[in-house]
Design a protein that fits this description.
166 residues; 82% helix; mainly alpha
Length: 166
């Protein structure tokens, strides 16, 4: 049952991914622009995430149908918050040298963004609690941590293999 759900989800998401692939056909086969390469990596990571979470949590097809829209929406909004946070942290050098920075305003906005992130976490908890058993919700949190660790390991191993080639 799990494998058929996993296959169905992979087929669904891969068909969506390939139908929305950007590009004008200017690249020859086997070549990808930087943006296409990043898009393909993102899609591949999303498919791995779906497979990983579905397996680790033990989602039924009915649960998955409600689960993924919630998780994807929260993730999208969380990325927007993190993007703004990073923008505030990376103050351009010219502004730092001129010392024309309103640090109070930046600090206030960062506190607001952290609160928004906490509110998103609570919203996710409330929404997932309505569709998952307490055990599966706990497994979701474990899967989040486990997937993040595996992703970091894969980046590290990729970096290491690139160093070995140089």
């Amino acid at each position: 049952m799990k494998s058929s759900l996993l296959i169905a989800l992979c087929v669904l998401f891969s068909s969506l991914a390939f139908s929305q692939r950007p590009g004008n056909g200017a690249n020859s086969p086997g070549q990808e622009s930087g943006q296409e390469g990043r898009q393909n990596q993102w899609e591949e990571m999303q498919l791995k995430k779906i497979a990983y979470f579905t397996d680790k949590i033990g989602l039924t097809p009915e649960e998955a149908q409600s689960f993924w829209p919630i998780v994807n929406d929260i993730q999208y909004r969380s990325f927007a918050i993190n993007h703004e946070m990073m923008r505030l942290i990376r103050i351009p050098r010219q502004e730092r040298e001129k010392k024309e920075i309103d640090y109070e305003k930046i600090n206030t906005r960062m506190a607001e963004l952290r609160q928004q992130q906490a509110d998103l976490d609570k919203e996710r908890y409330i929404k997932l609690k309505a569709i998952l058993s307490p055990e599966k919700l706990y497994k979701y949190y474990l899967a989040e941590e486990g997937f993040s660790r595996e992703l970091l390991r894969s980046f590290d191993s990729g970096r290491q293999s690139n160093r070995d080639r140089d």
